[in-house]
User: Fold these one by one.
Assistant:
Number 1:
Amino acid sequence: MNTGSLIAGALLLLVGACTSPLSREGRLPPPGEGLADATYALAPVPGDSDAAVAGAVSLVRDALADKGYRETANGRYRLEVGLASAAPELEVQRAESGESAARSMRRNPIVLCRPRRYVLTVGMIDRASGEVLFRNAAAARHCGTSPGKILPKMVRAAVNG
């Protein structure tokens, strides 16, 4: 084996330490064509939201439009979108990958970045009856200062499965 192959293999191993599989939990939104009224109104987003949240909302709107939903001021459903992030060492009751952070660190002991765990939640509630049409979450770990690269994949998982 030559030195170039060894270096390339080592770099691939290091890059792999910062990736995680995307997971989703919960019901997917049904196709809009199958609903009597596939309109929705966006729930207010907190005023102190950052660009990542605004980006998530925009991507979710586009994905729902592709699925047959329309946004209107008095839509039948209320759309809720949330984006949270935390250090992956923070343990939660239901880890998104079914694997603890400690186990993940043993598997990938060399990390050249500070990964963050991102969780995108999307749900729709009937504004008249309060019935939940769907609610789910997509989660992943990602290295970098923002979730911009992983967010489109998370939205696809949350809306399309």
Number 2:
Amino acid sequence: MDGLGVIFALLFSLLYPLAISVMVWRWRLSGEPFKPVLVAFLAAAVMFYVAYLRKVYVLFLSGMLLYTVDLVATGFIEEAAKLSVLLIPTVKGRLTPGNGVFYGLIAGFGFGAGEAVLVLAESAIAIPDLMISAFSLYFIKSLLLEATGASAWFIDLAILNLLLSLASIVSSGPLILSIPLLGIYERAVVVLLHGTLTGIVGWGLARGEVTKFYLAAVGLHVLVDFFAVLYVLGVVGALTIELTITIITLIVLLCVITKGGR
């Protein structure tokens, strides 16, 4: 089942962002050649993994300090990574005040695709991995009990922890091939969010005001990530967070498309 889940994760993560990118191209960039559009999408997808290297700080930080650093660093680094895609000569040479937003949207969708592949693929294998780990530990415990007659309470504790993690995933809502439906919805919204934020950056780059628009995108990115931190800390529930992020994304996306595409 995890194999099918991974295949589904890959297909959704790539085809959904690619489909809406083609829609944007046909809708607002129909006079543009497909090559710079494809370069923006693919380069941004790869750039996600370059930006992800920032996570090295998890080796040195923990607790609230980790959340604080991650909250701030993610916005600045990811928006800078997406900006670098728009600076690729093949892409930048096509930017105009009227299409900068839409090239930004496509680059953001590509970045979101790269992230979705990682997040959903990990989610697809989470349940099978937890089950295999729990059964493996139970088998080891049985061998120790038979060989020594001693109770391996620490293994029981590890198994309990795995089962609690499994229960948390299963109780999060309906699953599609081991992937929580809410997680799939979240990725769909986050792809739009990445497109929206990079649309802001592309808008500013095409207008020659990149710093101001970049900082605006970073500010919105940090705001959305702040809600995610509240969820991790248990302050608010998942549905509340998803609804809030959806509303913010759709409102800003509409504003960016209507005002930036003039």
Number 3:
Amino acid sequence: MNTGLDSVVNGLGPVENGLLSEVIPGNISLDSMPGLTDVNASNNPCSAPSSPVGHNSSPHPSSRKAYPSLSPNLSPTKTLPHQAASQNGLASQEQGTSIMMPDSNSTRQAFIPCKVCGDKASGYHYGVTSCEGCKGFFRRSIQKQIEYRCLRDGKCLVMRLNRNRCQYCRFKKCLAVGMSRDSVRYGRVPKGSKTAEEQYVSSAEHQQYQVALEKQQLAMYDIILTVSQAHHSNCNTTDEKIKSISKKTFTLISKLDFDNTLGSTEHILEAHRCQMFQNLAAYILPTIQRVVEFAKRIPGFADLSQDDQLILIKCGFFEIWLSWMTKLFNSTDKTLTLEDGSVVPKGELDIVYTPDIVSDMFSFAQSFGALKLNDTEIGLFSACALVDTSRPNISNMTMVEKIQERLREALKLQISRNHMSETMLFSQLMDKLRQLHTIGLRHGQLLGWFRERWYLIDTPPLFAEIYDIRKTEDD
């Protein structure tokens, strides 16, 4: 069909006329992320986001919303401590961490730096040796749910003198070194810990290991933070948003718009099914636009060709929609609550999608919900569902494979931090991706029935395009 897909080649504008091809362009590049520059990125660097409202304390911060679901149990694999000595010491700074190497003739006075900015640590805060400034910054970030944006490339150096310049990179550093809302052990640094840290930091080899590990973790947390914020901004079924949904009675069945006495019983049933599909499409349509916006913010997605972006969104939309809606499936009442609160009985979904597919949808929702993922993890899972190398006709498979690998690494890191006792959870999520993909393929085959009866369906152009349903004879 020809609904404007050709226009994706020339750079597209905002969502106005409802065409999928006009809402694809993105501004998040792998080039903007540490460790991801091996991907064949676009020649155009990512555009700098606008400055925030209400954060005038520094020249570069930007904000929209940050989310506390990022923080639980995000302790790093291993964070090496740093030290400093007094008067005759030699100062050294690397990656925002202040290290004082003492003169052999000097009398050392223990100094434990903040693992975020290198300032003098006041104790253990949120599970990490940190200063009062970074403790307060992290507390405000998770309590006020601030979403930060880096106005540069996500690689800002975080140290004592400039820690207020970029709040995004500072928050990312807090997460990377292990600050967590659930790690609330406060207090002064024990004397024994100081002695151990002083001994440990004396090795230059360990310091180099620290720097390399920190860079790797920052690259992964850049992905985690970016995808999490994209998910919270575009998904209407997060834990917070779902609280405001008020349920209401609803039916997909409506009176046909034509004289049904002129057709056979079979034709009447077909027309009713098409009408129910059309009614459901009106409720799903806004999610298409949000999924596109979500995809645009996945690191590396905008570097793909427009054709590959369209393929991934078309093939992955239903799977993302299903993963986002799992909290609203009720296996006990056998209902699905839509985002506006409309409660659809399973029996009506059976008519639209067939009982077998609907049963699989309910089964997936129940088992997926049992894993008790937080919103950040659901966002990363959805991103993995979208960027899938098994999609047909992808032109740059190498780039898609690299993005997919990075997303899965980020999901694995998040799971390992947040579910340390559940050693098999990541493998279970990979199984869930395969199960979700199977349901998506069956749904794609089902759409063939509606495509053959396109003349009975009047769906919005964007919905018709995402599912390749013709609108006219010429499509």
Number 4:
Amino acid sequence: MKSLQKVRERFYWNNVRSDVEKCCRICDPCAARKGPKKRTRGKLQLYNVGAPFERITFGILDPLPRSSDGNNNILVVMDYFTKWPEAYPIPDQEVSTDAEVLVQHWISRFRVSLQLHSDQGRNFDSAVCKRLCEILDIDKTRTTALHSQSDGMVERFNRTILNSLSLLVSSNQQDWDKKLPFFLLAYRSAVHETTGYSPSQMLFGRDLRLPADILFSRPPDAPLAPEEYIEKLSSHGWRKCIIWLRKESAWLPRR
């Protein structure tokens, strides 16, 4: 290495070789000028979102089998802050269809977002979509060309949809749009690995009541009064403790 040789001719310190190699490696002008054999990757950028539905993303999941209602696409819309998802079965990918669903089913229920992110699909980058964002004062952004990973949240969600629907649909696969709401219920109530909370907790501040709660019940949201708590503890707690001790008695050392 020429740089190392030049340095050694004039200076000396411990680990001189590793220091020089590190300096050459992190020199952006040198790397850009010489053109490295291995493509360098840009630094990951952190995008901070300050409120629910401030920044949303949407995309199309296709193609799917034509359902009995004539749908073979899913318009996916997600919120970056709460990770709240919506998935709308649609019969085509026309720009008018996407815009109508976005306004009537998302914006009318939640709010007009500050920023809308999507891939570079023609329907998302059309004049109609640009005009809609202009009217509603929405900043429209898009992913890098041929790099859908920059919208990774939707890409991962689409894979989750396909994996889950494959377990729910019938053999003819024509009822997937009927099963989609049940998948959304499960997803919204599951803890998201990024936030550590479920989308319902992030949006509503509480868990969703699920069909399983009807069968197995769950602790009440409202705290019990001290007298009621003591009564339940005395009637149920000790009984469960005795049952547990009986089950564990086989493991206790006998004298």
